[in-house]
Amino acid sequence: MKRSRELAAVGAAMVLATTLVSAGPVSAAEEAKGKPSEPSLVGSAKMLRKDGQDVRFAFDAHGLFPESRGTFRVSHVGDGFSAYFRGRIDCLVVGGPVAVVTGIVEDTDVPGLKDRRVGMTVYDDGRRDRLGYSWGPDPGNKHIVPPCLSTATFERVESGDFKAVEWFPPGSGIG
Fold first, then answer.
1. φ/ψ bin of 44: left (φ > 0), alpha (ψ from -120 to 50), beta (otherwise)
2. Rg of the chain on CA atoms, in Å
């Protein structure tokens, strides 16, 4: 099956620059070998919190930016509080075992978080995955998270698993 896609390579060093690269068709031989035809990040996990807090993330993200799609869910239950939010993926980029996703919060019980973009990074290291995220209190939405941008993976997974699949279009020169 022939396919062509555009690749947006996103770089951030004060300014987010996007370069579109025209991709060639995926060969029938590549598809027959079971090679991926798009990047993905799937799975769910509970974070390791020694203080007993229950923090969980779930992803079902597919497609290369700007054609990324899918969903994410986050929940956080601690001593006397709970919070959740879920939303739609608007960017996915996977390089090796690291996936960066951003998404727009569509449903939440956290005041001021609805309709904001959040960023999450996953390091897929078998059963020792790590995760980082970028959001927080932001009155007036002054610190907007750009598409495809998040932070280092500072949390450890206690249980569950994430699977990051790298893919770049044939002919892109990447990968």
1. beta
2. 17
The answer to whether the CB of 37 falls within 8 A of the CB of 27 is no
- Residue 56 and residue 41 in contact, taking contact as beta carbons nearer than 8 Å: no
28 membership: H or E segment, kind and range: helix 28-32
Instruction: Please give the single-letter amino acid code of residue 67.
Output: E
Give the DSSP H or E segment for 31: helix 28-32
Give the C-alpha distances (Å, rounded to integers) separating 107 from 72, 103, 110, 134: 11, 12, 9, 18
What tokens were used for 174? 């990447």
Three-state SS annotation for 36-91: CCCCEEEEEEEECCCCCCEEEEEEEEECCCCCCEEEEEEEEEECCEEEEEEEEEEE
Q: What is the pLDDT of residues 83-139, one digit of tens each?
A: 999 999 999 999 999 999 999 999 999 988 899 999 999 999 998 999 999 886 666
Which neighbouring-strand residues pair with 122? 99, 131
Q: Give the H/E segment covering residue 32.
A: helix 28-32
CA distance 57 to 5: 29
The model scores a pTM over 0.85: no
The answer to whether 7 and 172 have CB atoms below 8 angstroms apart is yes
